[in-house]
Structures are given as structure tokens and as C-alpha cells.
Recover the amino acids of this structure.
């Protein structure tokens, strides 16, 4: 069964770092885009970082220069290195795999077929 499983969330103080991981199984890893989304309480889900199979990346303006998305050469594990964390980064973070290329780098949620269960990141100020 195709699935994505996130790990690495936790609680840190402002300015700290965390690395999230997403393990894909059962052909859940996309040959197009993989991405991280997040959703804070009372807010809509938003795209954080995406990576295409050729290595091209895209980041939300709010995380540029602080977060880095990467994947293993085997393309079965996705990472999100988060540095200089801020209180506003507090959210549930989700890994997702796109089933089509159109718009996937730009976080078009309709092309993301597989989603993980999420991992909580809490940043205290």
C-alpha cells in the first residue's frame, strides 16, 4: 500500500532547528514533485517547500533562506531542514506526493495524490 510517513517534529525554542523526514513506500514517491505543506490552527493549509524529480525547488516566501528541502538519491525519503525557527512556523507539517507535474512546484494541492498523517512542530518564543 502506498503511503507517506513523516517524523522529526517536536517542540523547540525560537531560533532553533528541526529536520523533518518523510519515508515513502509502495510507490508513493512521486516522479514529479514531492512537497511539504503545513497547517496552523484556524488557518488554511499552505505550501512550504517543493522539489521536482530533476532537483528544482520552490519555497514559500516566509521560509526562504531558513528551510531547505532535499531528497535521497533513491528518491524514497524526503527531508525538510528547518533553521532559525520562529513562533509563526508552529503548525502540523505534511509530506505530499504529486501525481501530475502541472503546478506541483507551485503547491497546487489538486495534483498531490498522497499525503502523510502529519508531524507537529511547535516553536516557543
Amino acid at each position: 500500500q502506498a503511503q507517506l510517513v513523516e517524523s522529526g517534529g517536536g517542540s523547540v525554542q525560537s531560533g532553533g532547528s528541526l529536520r523533518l523526514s518523510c519515508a515513502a513506500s509502495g510507490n508513493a514517491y512521486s516522479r514529479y514533485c514531492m512537497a511539504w505543506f503545513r497547517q496552523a490552527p484556524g488557518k488554511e493549509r499552505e505550501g512550504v517547500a517543493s522539489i521536482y524529480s530533476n532537483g528544482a525547488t520552490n519555497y514559500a516566501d516566509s521560509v526562504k533562506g531558513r528551510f531547505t528541502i532535499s531528497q535521497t538519491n533513491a528518491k524514497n525519503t524526503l527531508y525538510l531542514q528547518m533553521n532559525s525557527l520562529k513562533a509563526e512556523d508552529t503548525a502540523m507539517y505534511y509530506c505530499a506526493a504529486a501525481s501530475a507535474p502541472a503546478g506541483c512546484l507551485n503547491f497546487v494541492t489538486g495534483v498531490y495524490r498522497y499525503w502523510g498523517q502529519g508531524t507537529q512542530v511547535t516553536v516557543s518564543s
